[in-house]
From TrEMBL:
Origin organism lineage: Bacteria, Pseudomonadati, Bacteroidota, Bacteroidia, Marinilabiliales
Pfam families: VTT_dom (PF09335)
Protein name: SNARE associated Golgi protein
Transmembrane residue ranges: 12-29, 49-68, 75-95, 126-148, 155-174
UniProt main location, coarse: membrane
Classification via InterPro entries: DedA_domain, VTT_dom
Amino acid sequence: MNISRQHITRAAVVVFFAAVAIAIASATIGREIYGATKESLLSFGIVNFSGYLFFLIMPVELAFIYYLHSDLSFILLNVVAVTTALGSQMVDYYIGHSLSARIINKLIGRHRYQKAEEEIQKYGNIAIFLFNLLPLSSPLMLCAAGMLRHPLRQALIYSALGLTIKYLFITIFFL
């Protein structure tokens, strides 16, 4: 059984970022669920911001539903969800814009990156909108958009539209 150094490095990166995601979720949602503390917009914002970074995988839609059933204002919750997601996606975009394809390929895998790249080249803003509307990997899409030098303003406008509709739909359906 021959395991390459690249596979070991990739596994170590995945384990590290999974540990970071678990630590963030435990420090915010976990503390609020198991502790005596009350849900807050700050903890939701931290979880949502972290979940939209392309290198962390967190179920942000589930976290949104959890916080939706708290005493928090659903309007403020929607505003925080969209703004923190857009903030993270700007980070994803600039990471993609500043890093080489080789580094990104090692971090997330060539296949995942190529798929996002193909979607942006083929469909552009429509792909960005749909990936934000649906529970797909929109952070990867914004990272690829940055690597392809897709206009940031267009990417953020279509991301904001998709995110707003998604979170409003979740609010209506689960409230």
